[in-house]
Amino acid sequence: MLDCLRCMHLFLCRKTTAPIKTLTTLGRYVLVLLTLAACAPLPPQRGYLWQPSPNHDQRRPNFVIIHQTSDKTVGEALTTLTSPERRVSAHYLIGRDGTVIQLVDEAARAWHAGKSWWGGSTDLNSASIGIELDNTGDEPFAEPQIAALLALLEELRARYLISSANFIGHGDVAPGRKVDPSRLFPWQRLAQHGFGLWCEAPPPSVPPGFDPMLGLMAYGYDIARPASARQAFRRHFLGSDADEELTIDELALIFCLLQMKNLRDTGAQGASAGDRANGEVLSH
Q1: Residue 175 forms beta bridges with which residues?
Q2: How confident is the model over 122-161, as pLDDT tens digits?
Q3: Model confidence pTM above 0.85
Q4: Which residues are catalytic?
Q5: Same domain, yes or no: 84 and 211
Q6: CA 215 centroid distance within chain
Q7: Environment class of residue 141 by beta-carbon count within 10 Å: exposed (0-12), middle (13-18) or buried (19+)?
Q8: H helix intervals, the chain
Q9: Is the same domain home to 1 and 124?
Q10: What are the pLDDT digits (tens) for 101-114?
Q11: Residue 9 lies in a domain
């Protein structure tokens, strides 16, 4: 029923040629009926047998992707993010003063990541929440803005049980095409709150034969353009836009991050298997 109510909200709140308040009573009933019909289960496809199961709920976002608007004001960003012609949006926009504006229902697919790749996933829009930060890209991120972001991320993590490693940036999932958030973004501070990974003390060396590009790919990066992948990695973890060959210390950092990610993934898989075995259900 909650899914239907959300569906009804999305339908009724879309732009119409006339405001809802001007519709007749009959018109309102028609809209409600049409919306409920849209929420009904789809019929079996191509003649397949249809035996509905009650064991389901809404799909859950598994990533949070952070962006910067590259605009000078929230007003400019809102114009872009709500323009039908621009065909770009995000679930949330956070101003420099910490004001949080929701633009798209979390259950809907916002158009924020575009052509992207992360760990083999090629449609990040369908699996993520997009958050835009009002920032030109050449300035530090304002303290009220980061405080508001941390509070929002805490809510999203609690609501969807998103893994620490899955809080990433637009530049991470679209290396070479996007560079946001900029090298000034405080990823280390976010990681200290559990949003993203950070290696404080990389090992002094890596195993013999360790391939850094395969390491970056294992972590999640698209390495089709190696220089762009190196640049995206450095922007996130070293605050640099350099794209030259990786140093020994950077290899150690990649190896350290991989170890952290593997430990988190192993723990998450174990918890999921236990939940399934015990018949437990994630909180709604």
Answers
A1: 178
A2: 999 999 999 999 999 999 999 999 999 999 999 999 999 9
A3: no
A4: 132
A5: yes
A6: 22
A7: buried
A8: 2-12, 25-39, 74-81, 143-160, 170-173, 187-192, 212-219, 226-237, 248-277
A9: no
A10: 999 999 999 999 99
A11: yes
